[in-house]
Design a protein that fits this description.
six-stranded mixed beta sheet; 4 helices; 30% helix
């Protein structure tokens, strides 16, 4: 269960709602729902030294679909990215969580802590920065 931390007293911000819709769509495997949250022009960055960082920055929803989500679906079995806490700072949303899966090439699991920093403008995600335990994922990628 995720906890939402906010310094606001009113209802959830537009940015928070957008990010929650994206995580919910991801959990359901709803590609169209994920893509609907992305702005046409993005600044999407996977963590340095992460297996998907070779194409940073991803600038369009199509680039994210192909370079991130397609590769995750192909290279990682049972993948999930589950937030445990979400911090609402208006147009910037920070999520803490765990990224889990099994690397198809090695059959090894990983369970890596992450921080996702989302930037939202006019109801769409315009920016993403991931920070993740790349060592944990790298170890699962190793054959020996």
């Amino acid at each position: 269960m995720k906890k939402i931390m906010t310094d606001r007293t009113e209802n959830a911000s537009n940015g928070l709602e957008v990010v929650e819709r994206l995580y919910d769509a991801f959990a359901r495997g709803d590609a169209a729902g994920i893509m609907a949250q992305l702005h046409d022009e993005l600044d999407w960055n996977e963590a340095e030294n992460f297996m998907l960082s070779d194409r940073n920055p991803y600038r369009t929803p199509a680039a994210v679909a192909d370079g991130v989500f397609r590769r995750l679906a192909t290279d990682v079995r049972d993948y999930e990215a589950t937030p445990t806490e979400i911090f609402d700072a208006g147009d910037v949303i920070v999520a803490l969580g765990r990224s889990k899966g099994i690397i198809v090439a090695t059959g090894k699991p990983f369970d890596a802590q992450y921080v996702h920093i989302w930037r939202v403008k006019s109801g769409k995600i315009i920016g993403f920065q991931q920070v993740i335990d790349t060592l944990n994922v790298w170890q699962a990628q190793q054959s020996a």
